[in-house]
TrEMBL record:
An individual GO BP term: response to stress
Listed name of the protein: Thioredoxin
Family affiliation: Belongs to the thioredoxin family.
Domain Thioredoxin, residue spans: 1-115
Keyword Disulfide bond: yes
Keyword annotations of the record: Disulfide bond, Electron transport, Redox-active center, Transport
Stored Pfam families: Thioredoxin, TPR_19, TPR_20
Species per Swiss-Prot/TrEMBL record: Frateuria terrea
CDD domains cross-referenced by the UniProt entry: TRX_family
GO cellular component: cytoplasm
A single GO molecular function term of this UniProt record: protein-disulfide reductase activity
């Protein structure tokens, strides 16, 4: 641990919990990290939390709970797996997460609740390295091996596999989820994505589809497949634009496929603003 982090990191036990966590959180939020020496993901998460504690320069304090030594505290928070992190503010549990999140997601979590304090000793944040899909899959597989009871991690893995283009494996993971997660909003969206992905079986690659559409803007089949590829390959707005182009010029093509594609696409997207915008555009063309 760096000297900058030491000023903002402390150990929690039953003796100091009320004073250093509950009472102290009335003035400064306390991020509570539940960990253990034998926990592999904890060894990844812990140093990142300490680094962020130094960067935030006292905007929050990082309290660490060794669950093996403090089973009473772990029980009080209902800890079922580690690492688990809880944010306490104004004497109340405000938010939390389980698992070793990548640094970018840690920063996003903290930014929702606290802002770094300026000071002479403040450490300039280092840009968080984006995790590529293969790294995400590897991390989640390790987390699942360490916490096999964590079904939510298995859903995360299914989503990561889909982002990596492994639709069949993603579907197998999705089908193996327990009933309580099968209706999770993310699982429902993934099921819709898999339905769309089936349209791409045997379909040309993106460059060929772009060339076909450029050569013949009325090649509705190519435009439709291009829209699906764009939608599933992280350019949803461009994909929706393809479907709208078909809806505008050839509403009845392939038994009204463009409208069906748009409705299916809306079910896959977790962006209310984007969906609302394109729903209005679709409605303006239909009515």
């Amino acid at each position: 641990m760096t000297a900058a982090a030491q000023a903002h990191v402390f150990d929690i036990d039953t003796a100091n919990f009320e004073t250093e966590v509950l009472r102290a959180s009335m003035t400064t939020p306390v991020l509570v990290d539940f960990w253990a020496t034998w926990c592999g993901p904890c060894k990844t998460l812990g140093p990142m939390l300490e680094k962020l504690a130094a960067e935030y320069n006292g905007a929050f304090r990082l309290g660490k709970v060794d669950v093996d030594k403090n089973q009473e505290l772990a029980g009080m928070f209902g800890i079922r797996s580690i690492p688990t992190v809880m944010l306490v503010k104004d004497g109340q549990l405000l938010d939390g997460f389980a698992g070793a999140l990548p640094e970018g997601e840690l920063r996003e979590f903290l930014s929702r609740h606290v802002q770094p304090l300026e000071g002479e000793d403040q450490v300039e944040p280092e840009p968080a390295e984006a995790e590529d899909p293969a790294q995400t899959i590897n991390r989640l597989q390790q987390d699942i091996a360490a916490n096999p009871e964590r079904s939510d991690l298995k859903l995360d893995l299914a989503l990561a596999l889909m982002r990596n283009g492994q639709a069949d494996t993603a579907e197998a993971e999705l089908n193996a989820l327990p009933a309580n997660l099968a209706t999770d909003a993310r699982a429902v969206r993934l099921r819709s994505q898999l339905d769309l992905a089936r349209a791409l079986e045997g379909a040309p690659a993106m460059p060929e589809l772009r060339q076909r559409v450029q050569a013949d803007p009325a090649d509705w089949s190519a435009r439709d497949l291009l829209g699906v590829r764009l939608l599933l390959e992280d350019d949803p707005a461009a994909g929706l634009d393809q479907f709208l182009a078909i809806l505008e010029k050839a509403r009845d093509w392939n038994d009204g496929a463009a409208k069906k594609r748009l409705l299916a696409a809306f079910a896959t997207l977790d962006d209310a603003e984007l969906v609302g915008h394109y729903r209005r555009r679709m409605a303006s063309l239909l009515f």
